[in-house]
Structure to design on (925 residues):
């Protein structure tokens, strides 16, 4: 039936051209209706659902031979899944890859937006597990689609109201819902709410791919993105008490690293590229010497 | 601590190397050939083809070997390959009346045109471990008879002649058969797409749902009208030629369930039906599929929706084991950015709580803030 | 009082397959008027209520509603968005079982506040104050504002459901057996409350009940249904004191024995 000796000769960027065109049509529609979830015929990818198949399909549909790709997971280029996805694209496209935010033309990400401001020549591709911001308030797709269509978003504020009634403040820390261009309520994917303001009026095109749930949505450049809140409980981002222990950066998102079994810890930049750049520029945090040694 | 993060690339390579080693196992034991898997573990191959939606025994066997016998992993491998194949066209519907039957049973009639054929079934074996299989004993040649060349009518057709069962559903003339793998899913689904989803759905999940309808969660009073297993021709129309050409034969299992009759003032009582069709030999899956197909027709037939098996969005959204395993297992991936956000919030709320307690003068001596 | 009715129901008919749900029902409802629909179970009263309130689609007939701008609109010719907006602002629907009309795992405050947030209120403190005020009006203590209805008694849940419906100042409220599953003493208190709210707010209401005592206490006018047809209608006191149809006489005599 098949010449099995050479069974895996894949097209550029893995997907066949027909499929890429289908995805590009979905992307164009998504850009035309900012924040609206466009259904698309998601394909099986050679990595499991939930591991970035949506982002990978979007990247595969927009990447060209001249692109430079950066892949991050939790803000870092060298977490295992980021390494694995980057290796996949190297294999099936042979494009240049980088860890530098500045040099990348396409950045695929899971859970973070880079600290450095992105520009007009860049595309940020998000991996999305559950695209529906109303999902945990209303499990039915048929019902949530109707709620979006009729702009019935009262329920979303009921959730925020409950947070405040129970905890004194809004207790949503990631996947914090936003309203895009005054119309669609959108899930920014599980990025910490710290990153929400970066989506607003971003110069870069932002594309969101949910493979298992078969949805693509987008925020075109220079689009208004507002985090939902109350007038008397305005949206706030997380703040950190201390600067990065390695590069002394403030106003960035930090990861907590446990140093020993007594529970001592340090806080370091979640965005590894940003941290490295700062250290190269001569910034030093109070633990930079030790931590560099710990890197072998 | 930072080391584990930095070592990503090397760690992955080493893990793959170790996996290959474990897959091969003891080098003094001969490696398995794909032919051995195809010939001797045929039902595993059938399930992989069926839920992988690709009819190719050799590739399914390769997937099985590569996955170290993990069914869902093997199905996933086959699907990921299938999705890259170009779509040349769609075959004509297979005609199971003209199946080259190896097994065919009906629970609704003692005898019927074409007869009952037990075929290769576990049904009446006693489940006693067979020590003889530990060696490689010779196996007797089976007794076979020349198959009748004419087609064998399906039980549903016998009932249709009397008008006792609803006819096969009609789709509008301009209906294009859906393709679950090429178009986004939308609820409510047309039955053709729903059957596709069930046919490649997880055997265990459908089995449990079918079972639940028998235990009263959406009863449908099923009878096995007929199960048939055998080979059917696959034909495709070539527009340039103006006729259909034969691409080859595939083995399938078909189950037609005769279920709960219905009638009203306008139409006389009739049995309804549930349908199952899967690649290869898999009676359990075909039967479960036909039960679930029937219960998912509850809305169409005006029945009360009370049970999980009747809920199309619930059943279809969760039937795909490749999707399910991916999302469940993705919890292994790092989530520390989000966890950090939660951690920070919980700490903050705790310190607010403790501050409030102290303000109220209720704080015990030993309840001092940790930091 | 306005010279025009609030609602006009014309030849409303609903079939379930070949079975009659309700048949050829016409009436008008005036501002500030409470209409009771009575009958035993299966008589078609709930079917009628659901058809008028657009929860079901009638087989034939029209329902016209006078919008706040004074124009009559056919409810079944409105777009879904407009109809849903009407339902959650200008209308209320009180279910027999409060769990059908409340969010049981969301606080009382949010239950009352939901409609406000749905129409764009974005000030937490104001929403909460309004909710607390409404809890007071339905005799629920202000310190229960953060509790979930699943911790409430049946009577409290029903009162909370009423507050949730009234917070947007609707002009028309539908009630389906509002005192259904409650103890007799609780029923009396609830009826009292409903009656004073309806009076104070000048609400129009359509109340479905099998309990003639409820109809007597709440309604100005009543319709008696049997087998899908309205067999008798008139002022409540007239129908109850001087029933004309034998079936109504039977109903009235059976209640008097209780």
């Amino acid at each position: 039936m098949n010449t099995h000796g050479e069974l895996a000769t894949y097209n550029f960027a893995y997907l066949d051209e027909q499929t890429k065109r289908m995805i590009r049509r979905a992307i164009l529609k998504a850009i035309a209706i900012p924040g609206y979830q466009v259904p698309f015929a998601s394909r099986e990818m050679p990595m499991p659902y939930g591991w970035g198949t949506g982002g990978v399909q979007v990247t595969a549909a927009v990447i060209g031979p001249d692109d430079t790709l950066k892949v991050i997971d939790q803000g870092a280029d060298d977490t295992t899944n980021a390494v694995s996805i980057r290796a996949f694209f190297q294999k099936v496209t042979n494009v240049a890859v980088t860890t530098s935010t500045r040099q990348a033309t396409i950045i695929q990400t899971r859970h973070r937006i880079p600290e450095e401001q992105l520009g007009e020549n860049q595309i940020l591709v998000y991996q999305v597990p559950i695209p529906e911001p109303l999902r945990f308030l209303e499990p039915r797709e048929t019902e949530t689609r109707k709620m979006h269509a009729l702009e019935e978003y009262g329920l979303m504020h009921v959730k925020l109201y409950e947070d405040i009634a129970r905890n004194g403040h809004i207790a949503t820390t990631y996947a914090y819902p936003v309203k895009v261009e005054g119309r669609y309520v959108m899930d920014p994917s599980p990025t910490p709410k710290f990153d929400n303001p970066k989506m607003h009026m971003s110069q870069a095109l932002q594309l969101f791919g949910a493979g298992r749930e078969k949805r693509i949505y987008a925020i075109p450049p220079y689009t208004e993105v507002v985090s939902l809140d109350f007038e008397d409980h305005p949206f706030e981002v997380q703040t950190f008490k201390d600067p990065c222990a390695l590069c002394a950066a403030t106003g960035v998102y930090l990861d907590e690293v446990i140093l020993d079994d007594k529970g001592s810890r340090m806080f370091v930049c979640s965005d590894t590229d940003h941290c490295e750049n700062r250290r190269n520029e001569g910034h030093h945090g109070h633990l930079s010497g030790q931590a560099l040694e710990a890197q072998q | 601590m930072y080391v584990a993060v930095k070592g990503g690339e090397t760690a992955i390579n080493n893990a793959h190397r170790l996996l290959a080693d474990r897959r091969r196992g003891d080098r003094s034991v001969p490696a398995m050939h794909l032919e051995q898997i195809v010939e001797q573990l045929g039902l595993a191959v059938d399930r992989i083809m069926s839920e992988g939606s690709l009819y190719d025994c050799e590739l399914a066997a390769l997937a099985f070997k590569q996955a170290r016998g993990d069914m869902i992993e093997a199905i996933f491998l086959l699907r990921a390959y299938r999705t890259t194949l170009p779509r040349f066209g769609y075959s004509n519907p297979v005609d199971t009346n003209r199946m080259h039957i190896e097994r065919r049973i009906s629970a609704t009639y003692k005898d019927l045109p074409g007869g009952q054929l037990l075929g290769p079934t576990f049904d009446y074996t006693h489940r006693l471990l067979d020590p003889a299989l530990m060696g490689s004993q010779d196996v007797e040649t089976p007794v076979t008879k020349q198959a009748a060349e004419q087609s064998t009518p399906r039980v549903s057709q016998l009932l249709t002649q009397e008008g006792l069962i609803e006819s096969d559903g009609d789709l509008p003339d301009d209906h294009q058969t859906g393709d679950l793998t090429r178009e986004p899913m939308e609820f409510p689904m047309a039955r053709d797409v729903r059957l596709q989803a069930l046919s490649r759905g997880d055997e265990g999940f459908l089995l449990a749902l079918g079972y639940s309808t028998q235990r009263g969660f959406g009863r449908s009073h099923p009878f096995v009208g007929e199960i048939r297993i055998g080979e059917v021709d696959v034909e495709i129309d070539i527009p340039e030629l103006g006729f259909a050409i034969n691409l080859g034969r595939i083995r399938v299992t078909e189950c037609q369930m005769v279920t709960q009759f219905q009638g009203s003032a306008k139409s006389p009582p009739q049995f309804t039906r549930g349908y199952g069709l899967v690649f290869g030999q898999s009676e359990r899956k075909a039967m479960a599929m036909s039960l679930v197909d029937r219960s998912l027709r509850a809305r169409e037939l005006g029945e009360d929706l009370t049970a999980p098996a009747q809920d199309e969005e619930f059943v279809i959204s969760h039937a795909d084991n490749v999707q399910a395993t991916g999302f469940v297992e993705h919890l292994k991936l790092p989530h520390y950015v989000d966890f950090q956000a939660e951690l920070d919030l919980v700490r903050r709320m705790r310190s607010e709580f403790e501050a409030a307690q102290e303000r109220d003068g209720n704080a015990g001596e030993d309840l001092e803030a940790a930091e | 009082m306005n010279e025009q009715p609030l609602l006009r129901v014309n030849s409303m008919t609903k079939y379930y397959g070949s079975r009659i749900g309700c048949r050829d029902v016409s009436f008008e409802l005036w501002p500030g008027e409470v209409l009771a629909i009575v009958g035993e179970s299966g008589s078609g009263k709930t079917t009628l209520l659901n058809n008028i309130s657009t929860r079901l689609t009638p087989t034939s007939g029209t329902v016209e509603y006078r919008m706040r701008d004074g124009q009559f609109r056919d409810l079944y010719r409105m777009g879904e968005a407009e109809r849903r907006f009407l339902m959650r602002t200008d209308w209320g629907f009180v279910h027999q079982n409060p769990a059908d009309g409340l969010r049981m795992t969301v606080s009382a405050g949010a239950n009352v506040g939901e409609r406000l947030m749905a129409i764009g209120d974005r000030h937490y403190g104001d929403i909460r104050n309004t909710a607390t005020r409404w809890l007071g009006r339905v005799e629920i203590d202000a310190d229960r504002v953060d509790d979930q209805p699943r911790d409430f008694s049946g009577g409290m849940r029903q009162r909370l459901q009423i507050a949730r419906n009234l917070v947007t100042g609707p002009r028309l409220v539908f009630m389906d057996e509002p005192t259904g599953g409650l103890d007799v003493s609780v029923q009396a208190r609830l009826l009292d409350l409903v009656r004073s709210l309806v009076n104070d707010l000048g609400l129009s209401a359509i109340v479905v009940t099998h309990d003639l005592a409820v109809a007597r206490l709440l309604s100005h006018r009543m319709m008696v249904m049997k087998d899908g047809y309205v067999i008798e209608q008139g002022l409540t006191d007239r129908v109850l004191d001087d029933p004309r149809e034998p079936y109504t006489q039977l109903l009235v005599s059976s209640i008097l024995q209780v």
User: Anything to note?
Assistant: The interface with chain A takes residues 80-81, 84, 88, 103, 106-107, 109-110, 113-115, 117-119, 122-125, 127-128, 145-146 of chain C (CB under 8 Å).
